[in-house]
Specification:
alpha/beta; Rossmann fold; N-(1-d-carboxylethyl)-l-norvaline Dehydrogenase, domain 2; two-stranded antiparallel sheet
């Protein structure tokens, strides 16, 4: 039986652990908080997925060495901006032949590195063993075993297939893809676009407005991803359009919800105070914007979201700025 170590007991780490177990993989989770670990060992994670029973094949521990020991697959599901610090403590524990899977959707502040790049640098992991999983994967829906699909991206096709086989549950369909760059960029940038869509929702705007933001946000994501070496086709797939639509339109989306509160007039600090889980787009918008500037890519929606989050601009000012931009052809 394949064994997976999952580092992180948040909603997505827990839901993906259930997927692995339902696919026949033995799962050992690592968690920082003893009370959450105890809940998981009792069959649920009430802090993050209340009311949902976990499969019997999922156990948890507060000891990272115990979680990682003998694992064929190591899954990392911590907030993206904490990855470097966490990996510095875990790198020596990672089995040398294990596939290392990133569930994280962000770009590191300061370095503008993608999560796979941080794993390679800090963990000393060969990029041929690093896998990025991304798609329209709202954690609670998957934990409820509602059908979903996702992308398992790795430059080594055999490693991608091995991880896909380990998570191919009856309700979860993985597709392999060699484009790690595009898969990761789609997952990171969609969080920023979802903040913009949420702001539009909070301001009372309708579906035309939100569809326009989603479409132009996808154009920005694709431009940036291609500039970094991603495949344009990836952004039309599950890790691009699929994830973008789910994150922008679902009330289960943390980033959309954060944006809704901003659109209703709350300040960033006020929204942070009432937001229990991490909204990755709030942290990543600056690093995504810097990445775009470094590569000479025009990303007006991302730029305006960063201005709201970090410069105190209002959502109404953002709308006015975007609509006042010079007209251009839709396709560059």
């Amino acid at each position: 039986m394949t064994t997976a170590a999952v580092f992180g007991t948040g909603s997505w780490g827990t839901a993906f652990s259930a997927v692995l177990a339902d696919a026949g993989t033995h799962v050992r989770m690592w968690g920082r908080r003893p009370e959450v670990v105890a809940q998981i060992n009792a069959g649920s994670n009430e802090d993050y997925l209340p009311g949902i029973r976990l499969p019997q094949g999922v156990t948890a521990t507060t000891d990272p060495g115990e979680a990682a020991a003998g694992a064929d697959i190591v899954v990392v599901a911590v907030p993206s901006q904490t990855l470097r610090t966490n990996l510095e403590g875990w790198s020596s524990l990672l089995p040398q032949d294990a596939a290392v899977v990133s569930l994280m959707k962000g770009v590191e502040l300061g370095t503008t590195k993608r999560m796979s790049e941080v794993i390679a640098e800090v963990g000393g992991v060969d990029p041929r063993r690093i896998v990025a999983i991304s798609g329209p994967n709202l954690a609670r829906e998957i934990a409820l075993k509602q059908p979903a699909a996702s992308v398992v991206a790795c430059v080594d096709e055999a490693v991608a297939e091995r991880v896909a086989d380990a998570c191919a549950a009856p309700y979860f369909r993985p597709y392999t893809n060699p484009d790690v760059i595009g898969t990761e960029l789609g997952g990171a940038v969609k969080n920023v676009v979802a903040l913009a869509v949420g702001m539009a929702e909070g301001m009372g705007m309708g579906d035309n407005s939100k569809a326009s933001i989603i479409t132009r946000g996808l154009a920005e994501t694709t431009r940036l991803g291609v500039a970094l070496g991603g495949d344009p086709a990836t952004f039309a797939g599950l890790a691009g359009l699929g994830d973008l639509v789910a994150t922008c339109m679902s009330p289960l989306s943390r980033n959309r919800t954060f944006g809704v509160n901003l659109g209703r007039g709350m300040s960033v600090s006020e929204v942070v105070a009432v937001t229990r889980q991490t909204a990755e787009g709030v942290k990543s918008c600056d690093s995504v914007l810097q990445l775009a500037k470094d590569h000479g890519v025009d990303v007006p929606i991302i730029e305006q979201v960063a201005a709201v989050v970090h410069e105190g601009r209002t959502p109404q000012q953002v709308v006015e700025s975007l609509l006042a931009r010079a007209r251009k052809a839709e396709v560059d």
